[in-house]
Structures are given as C-alpha cells and as structure tokens.
Amino acid sequence: MSSSAASEPKRYNFRETEAKWQKVWDGKQTFRAVMDKARPKYYVLEMFPYPSGRIHMGHVRNYTQGDVIARYKRAKGFNVLHPMGWDAFGLPAENAAIEKKTHPKTWTYANIATMKAQLKSMGLSLDWSRELATCDPSYYRHEQKMFLDFWKAGLAYRREAWVNWDPVDNTVLANEQVIDGKGWRTGATVERRKLTQWNLKITTFADELLSRLDTLDRWPEKVRLMQANWIGKSRGARLSFELTDASGADRGKLEIFTTRPDTLFGASFMALSPEHPITAQLAADDPGLQRFVAECRKTGTAAAEIETAEKQGYKLPLLAKHPLVPGRTMPVYAANFVLMEYGTGAIFGCPAHDERDHEFATKYGLPILQVVAPANAKEKIDVQAAPFVDDGVIVNSEFLNGLAVEDAKAKVIARLEEMKVGTGTTQYRLRDWLVSRQRYWGCPIPAIHCEKCGVVPVPEKDLPVKLPDDVTFDRPGNPLDHHPTWKHVPCPTCGGAARRETDTFDTFIDSSWYFDRFTSPGLETAPFDRAENEYWMPVDQYIGGVEHAILHLLYSRFWTRAMREVQLTGRDEPFDGLFTQGMVCHETYRASDGTWLLPEEIERTAGGNVVRASDKSPVEVGRSEKMSKSKKNVVDPDQIIRDYGADTARWFMLSDSPPERDLEWTEAGVTGAWRFQQRLHRIASEAMNGLPAAGTAKPAALSDAATELRRAAHKTVAGLSADIEAFHFNKAVARLYELANTISGFAAKDAGDAWAQREALEIFVRLIGPMTPHLAEELWQELGHTTLLADSPWPVADAGLLVDDTVTVAVQLNGKLRGTIALPKDAAKDVAEKTALALPELVRGLEGKTPKRVIVVPNRIVNVVV
RNA sequence: GCCCCCGUGGCGGAAUUGGUAGACGCGCCUGACUCAAAAUCAGGUUUCCUCACGGAAGUGUUGGUUCGAGUCCGACCGGGGGCACCA
Questions:
Q1: In this model, does residue A607 exceed pLDDT 70?
Q2: Please, which positions of strand B sit below 7 A from a protein CB?
Q3: Core-most of A94, A253, A587, A731, by most CB within 10 Å?
Q4: Any atom of strand B under 7 A from CB of A742?
C-alpha cells in the first residue's frame, strides 16, 4: 500500500481545504455587503433559526439552498445581502432555566455560539457583520418604539375577550397559533379564558392582505391560497331583527350576519352564541341558561370533539319579528354552534338550505321552509329529509320568486337597505392578533398601569424597557410578575405609584421585522436607516419552511403595513420572492423492546437484515418520516461535516430531490455525494498537467471533438443558470454530472484540444462554485488562478455554441416511433418528409401503403399517417 | 365535509407550448485491475417475446379530444397537505 501511494493521485483532503478557504473568505471579508447605489442589489434571506442548541438537517438544507442563490447572484454581478441572525426569545429558554438551572440568557447565548460555529463550518456566504439576536435590548428597543407608534396610530389596543389559554406554557395564544384545538408548540388542549390582552389590528388590513396576494407572483400558489383561506372573506349582509317577549313587549334589536340573505323567507329560528351579551343578560336570572352556557364552554375546540358534538340549543324567552313578513315571529335560542368571534355572534336559521340549521331544526322540531328550488325543474328534492345547498331558483319568497340566488341576494339587500334594517357587508374570518404573553423571556410590553391615569405608554426616553436579569423560576406563572421590584414604577403622567405591564410580546413580533433590521443592524436612533432600507428591501428571495405559511409570513406582511401607516417605510410587502423547502426525512428504527434507535445505532447484515449494533438483535424498520428527536431518526450535521465535509453535505442536499419536496436522507446518498467530490478532484487533477496556461488565447482552429466539448460546456452554462433561477437544483446537479462525464471522457490530442479542455474545466469549476464552494475554490487555484473564485463572474454561454448544426428528428408511423433521421437544423419541410419516407424502418412498416397525410414539425418530428 | 397538490423502472427523480418516456443519480449485474478485498475504471440495467435481428406493451384505473397524450378534458381509485360548527 505504501509503495503505491506515490503513483496514485492525491486524495482530496476536504478537512484541510474547507478550513483553509473559510479562513480566506473570513479574512478578506468577501461576503460583507455594502450599499452601492450604482449596482443592482439582491437580498437573499433564509428564515433565521431559533437557537435551540444545535443545527439540524433542516437548517442545512435551508441554508444550502439560500447559499446557492446568494453565490450565484453574486457571480452574476449583483450586490448581494445575505445575513444571518437569531430568533432568540422564546419558551424553550425558560424551560431550560427550570430544568437545568441556567439563566435563559446564558442558555441562549451559549446555544448561539455553538450554532454559529456549526453554520460557519458549512461555508455559507454570509455577512456575519450584520448578525443580530432578537433578545438583545439594542434590537427590541426599536420593537417597543414601533409598538408605541402603532398604539398612537390606533393599531394596538387592549381588549377583554375570550382567549386561548395554553395550560402547559401558562400563556395565551393567538388564533393562528391554535392548531386543531391544541397549542402550536405544546400540543396541549387549549382552554377558554376571559382576559384583557393586547391586540394588534391586523384586521384593518384584511382586505389589502388578501387582494395583494395576487401580486405576489413569486410566492408558491399553495401559500397564497392558505393565506387567502385564513383571511376568509365572505360577502353577505347584516340585518336587525326586532325582539319581543312572549307578551309582545319590545325587547330591543338583534343584529345578525348572513351570507345567504336570499333565504331570508326561509328563516324559522334565531340562534345566539352562548357568549352573546343578550344570552349573558338573560342568564343572570335563569339558572338553566347558566348551566347551558357553562356546558358549552367545556366543549373543546378540537376537530374530533366538534364533529361528534351534538347541536344543542336553549330556548330563550324571546321572539324575533321577521323583517319582511308582517306578523311572522320566530323562536330565539342560545346555541352551542354559534361563535361569538365571527360576525355578530348571532344568526338566523334557514334549515331548508343549510346543513347545520337543518340538523338543529330537526332536533327541535322547527319548521323547514323551502325557498330555493333546483334550476332544473325535473330534479326532485325533499328539504325535509336533507337541506338543498346548491345554486337554484328562489321560490316561496314574494318579490324574490324566480330569481337566481345571486340576483336575489342583491335584490333583498337593496330592499333591506331601503327599509333601513340591514346592509350589504363583507365579513372576514381573520381576527386581530393577540400579542400578550404571560412569559419572562420575551420583549417587555412598554406600558404602565396607573390607577388614576389608566394605561399609559412608557415615555420614549425610558426605552428600552429591559428585562431584569435577577428572576427566579421556582414557581409557575410569569417570573416578571413575581419580581420584587421590577414592576413598581411611578406613573409617567401623574407621578403616582403605578405598575409595569408584566406581559411580554409574542415572539412572532420579533421575527416580523428582523429582515428590515438587517439593512442597518447597528443603528441606535431608529429601527433602520431609511436610505439603506430602501436600497436593500424588499427581500428578493426568502426561503424557509411551509409551516410558516400563515403565522410568520402573515404577521410580517402586517407589520410592514403597520410601519407604513406610521411613516417608517413606504412599502407594502416585505418579501418579493418566497420559496418553501421540503423537510428532511429518515427511516425510523425500533428495537425489539420498543425503544427508538438512532441511525448510528443500527447496522445491516450481509443478508440485508437490520440489527442493533450493540447486541445484533433484530430491528424493526419503519417508514421514512420527518427527522425528529422523539423518534430518534436524526443525523447530526456536525458528524456528517466531520466525516464527509461540508461540500458533500451541501451536494447531497441539492441532488435528486426537488427542493420543495421532502428529501430522504440515506447513508448511500451521502457516500455517493462524497465519491463524486473525490471523482471531481481526480478528473481535474488528471487533466491539469497538459493544460495551457490560464488566459491563453483561443486557437484559430479546433478539432470537431474540441468543438463538441465546448458545446457541452456552454450548453451546461445556459441550462444550469436557468435551473438555478427556477430553483431546480436537482436538475442543475444532473447537468453537472453529465458535464463531468463528458470532460472525463475527453482525451486531448493537440494544443487546441487542451485549450478546449481548460475552458471546459474552468467553466465546470465556476458552475459548481455555488454548490460546493470549497472544492471549487481549491480547483480554481489549482487551475492557476490567483483571484478568488468567490469574486469571479459567472461564465457567459456563447450563443453560437448552444444550437446544433444537425438535429435528430423522430419518424413516426401513425404516431408510433419507427426510427430517427439526422437533418440539418431548420431543414425545409419537404426535405424532412422526403428523408423520412426513405427511412427503411418506415418503408417496412408501410407495407406498400400510400401515406394519407404527413405531419412535419420542424426539428422535432415527422409523423406519417396511413 | 370543503379547498388544494401529487400518482412515471427496484429506489430518488428527468421529460420546452401536446412531439424520440425513463435524462442524471442510487442500487443491482457483468468484466478489468488485485493473491484477495476496498477503491477505481469499462459495459449493461422499464417489462414481455426472441439465440439474435427485431417486435409488442408501457407513465394509478377508465373513457374522450388529437396525426400524435406522462402532459389537455370527464369519471373513478390511491397518497399527501390546508381549513373546518366561520352563518
């Protein structure tokens, strides 16, 4: 072995090489971004991480994709901003404080240090000089200031309302943060509590947030659709019903919202939310109603519970007068299925044309009045048995009879408006954003409660309101509230004894403007410098997980608009382009005792069985799932980078799977990626000897083989550029494999060939630059360059080499392939036809028959029809 | 229940506006090198029939449009995601 070492090509030492180039980039501050109005900018951003402790493969995939774009755009001549920071506030830090007795700040900053070192080992083209952490007072002071501005502008307010309470985290949650009746972080079933909390008026922008989705044409359709559904715009009407008691005495009015005013003549009952003020008022002296309301509150909001929960009503001592039919009255119920948060918290029931109302009416024996008939008169329906909810023609409805549903809606709204009992309106499902959290490790809400003056903003000169460091986590609840002195302050208005707000902000606020802060991270006087911000923003390409489709992305779109309202920016949208990457998955392994095993704890036997490495006991192999600590199907990026190098990890992340789809992490895939790195280095090293010097002029004449090699290289430049622009990294990788195969199969026979070989190699090295930057930089140097590849421009494809002189055209007989012919490019149709008809395979297939018709698609196909 | 996306070899996946289905990679098979193994290199690899030449079928199922369908349209089957008493 030792004797052959001298003759064998040197193995690529990734460890040494990767460290070397990282140091060079660092030392030269290669990726530092400086505003330069003479150059076009490009802002690439990956969703910044929560400093949980260590990076995981999802991060590696996300940041690799962003880095490909950043390095590519840099090479294309853009002034690229590619920053990184830390979403550093949040509950895990408090949980760690309780479990490990470390301070949240200590824990967070230690994690940041670890993860920063890990990210650095990936060789990302980041401008670390702009690094920020949201838990830093120099960051959150601006957040507090903006909040005060929003408050002044009426975009922030306090309100008592029923809220979602997470019993595990001991805090409230916003509507978006409750998934299937459970807390988004803890998975605990959410409880209903009535509390006074801070809200941001996202609903002010409901219509704008919806309509502007259409203009976000570089966002995934899926995300736009999810946001549109979440905002949930419905056209309809609000109208008032007069209420009386059984004796006919006036009991005020009841306002309802409906999307089906056309079915008003089919109304047979009214239903109020258990939380409706009228319900509450009547409950005061009705113990039965009190019990009913309490019962409704107990029912959870989980999907399964709702589906099985029966429609329940409690008949109130009220009657509602039909606004269009004199003398007709309807019973009024409190009903468990009516939500206080939507519309007016009250409805009219039209059982003939609504599933839910039908179920309720059937249960309580209420009349079912048909007012819509199928447009096709032959169609038989029975609304007593099932509601008819399709489009149709209005019947039994006086002045609406014969109209189509849509026309009837317009006509009845016009009539109600004339009578001044109703009006056409638009209703949104979106609710205001509840931002108070009863936690310590978050940005303090800059407000002071004074018994005399009410809720008073903290004066700007007192910002930031800093978190106290000396807190304890020895009892449940909010440590800020338990702090002996922190909350006691004089009222800024009257000077009397007052109390600080002890709630902190939802951490989604921190991440709603960090991309703006990156444009001027050190500025003390404002969240950002206007000129810097206008140069860099919006983010041209944002990359992250689809799990933020609603939460973070909607909040950020709101915050940008709120900043616009207080004249901080003139911008509507923060993210011009969005890409949502897929998850990283891995097989799961279970030992015979039922415990989960790490991939590194198993091994494969010669017979192909999977066993536990320690005792060779059999292992059950489960399907591939998203990598998660709980199922132990995780692979540590550190270990992969140590064993195979960052370039291998990056290359594997980009190969095979389309970036928006889930990626299956396999050992075989990693070793495959690793072998290719080695092979590349070998191909380049072997070819290196006979090459002319860098910068040698192109020879006057080139062999056919050399021209073919050039064609392959230049076609790859064009194709790969298009692939990267379109986020088709897997196709880009495939093209690079093809070019590598072409180059390795090429043997130079003369000086011209060697020149073409150098050209192809240089092109190749520049093309792999965004994907495997260390190897590319190394080969660039070995090719004799003294400048950095990272500073070199993207190769330009010679248009003349992209088109072939001859093309292969398929010949079909009745649409079936018979063979191919070679034709000059853009050959005349009759030439193509003549050549095709002479093709022996076609002649044989024709069996002497005369073609009826010949279809010629130039440069593509000739189809002979008999 | 409503809305959206996706079904292509043993596997991940390619296929411009409808125009040679299976690029590229993984795996597997054969060969070279080696005492041997690893690594590497060369060739093969959709299925079926055939010694071969060659032929037939084939993109979840099924019907349609077309000279021509993985691609367009209808129905169905399967998988995934989002929303869900939203009036």
A1: no
A2: 3-5, 12-15, 17, 19-21, 23-27, 39-42, 54-57, 67-69, 82-87
A3: A94
A4: no
